[in-house]
Design goal:
The structure holds 2 protein chains of 2 kinds. Chain A is mostly beta strands. Helices cover 12% and strands 51% of the residues of chain A. Chain A contains 2 helices and 11 strands; from the N terminus they run H-E-E-E-E-E-E-H-E-E-E-E-E. Chain A starts with a helix and ends with a strand. Chain B has helices at residues 5-9, 12-24, 34-51, 64-79, 84-103, 111-134, 139-157, 161-180, 193-211, 217-225, 235-256. Classes of the chains: A mainly beta, B mainly alpha.
Chain lengths: 192, 270
Amino acid sequence: MHKGVAFLAVGALVALGFVQTPSASGPEAMTYEVDPVHSTLVFRVTHLGVSAFYGRFNKISGSFETNDGDTGSVAITIDADSIDSNNGKRDGHLRSPDFFSTKQFPTIVFKGDLVKGEGNKYQAKGKLTLRGVTKDVTADLTRIGSANAMGGDRTGFEGSFRIKRSDYGMTWRPEALGDEVTIMFGIEGLHK
Amino acid sequence: MPIPVDVFLEIVPAALVSGAILLFTWRWREQAWRAPLAIGAGFATTFVYALGLPGWMPVDTTRLLLHFAVAAAVLGIVDARLPRPLAWALRLVFSAAVPWLLLRGLPEPPVTAMVVAAAALFVVWMALDWRAQVVDGWAQPLAILITAAAGGQALAAANNGLLGQLSGALAAAVGPLLLFGPLHGRQTLARGGAGVVAVIAAGLWMTGHFFSQNFPLSSACLLAAAPLAATKKRWWAGALVAALLAALAVYLAMHANPVDFGDPYEDYYN
């Protein structure tokens, strides 16, 4: 008799939504579309071995998916033609086959997985396709925060990773520009 | 974009290798295969020195210029031994293959441009070869050297340091023919040498126009026509016409890529 009452009570609570039942697929996935207005991608390279120079790409698109658990995925596309080094002549050179060869390779693509670390730390492990060459990269990320504002749920990460430009066929004048390039970014996503 | 000194120095091996080949094959100076071998090997030397060895089918089509140079040199070496119809047929195949291999790398390959470029390359190749049979000695190498050197500057003006350097390598590889020309009046680029020059130059001008920023078609056409100006009797007149056409090509490339050197934000030296 007591068992029957308890069963009915639990059944009623579940039906009313007071008790959360674990779903078969785990925590609900949240897909975010990159907000290009509030996302930034900057690169750093040394010049002549005497200074650090920073440039940026102005057009970023893509999406990422975060679970409440430990995993997710990322797919980011950068318009290579949107490179901006604060010098029109140099931008033209950076778009040429000496560097990004943007007429042949108009986009830079990163696709990978999000892996949660300690606290708000994450890693994005995946493949970067640049100038027709695809290589594994790992970016260290920090989740800045989440909010419901400006049209929906938003969340954002910042992070960085390093590549060697020669690995991607950019071998022009290694004595003038350093081989190692650091890419730093801040990505804000709007829940779809 | 001015050509930096170190970039210029990487061009020198092309001249050294080309000159060494012409020197060590002097006993076969009547043979047509010497010029394509020297030019092809010289160009390839600077290419590999500056860029390293590319893969078999490089994703970056700029790297295909080495493949074109080697293949054209091989064809040039055997050209004089082939029956003329077969040699012409192979030139036709090459002329079609070069634009196709280059331009298929673009996201939307321009089919019409491929056909026009193939036809243009074949016509220039045949015309250059025909002129080489008329103009022996060093008048034609001089016109080619002027054109390739100016082409390097035009490409550099259009933000193409690498292509400019490779155009300089072509000039450097042709240069030793000027030195050996006076010693060997019947030196010729016919049946071999003209093909290597035509294929390398076509690869450079096409890559410059289709893959880089603002290398004008007019510059490419002028540079394609300039070596044809070489004449037998008045070598200086041919050289002058080639220089004028090449200079116009440089001017047009610079005009398409203006730099305000008074503006510190435009004062770009790489």
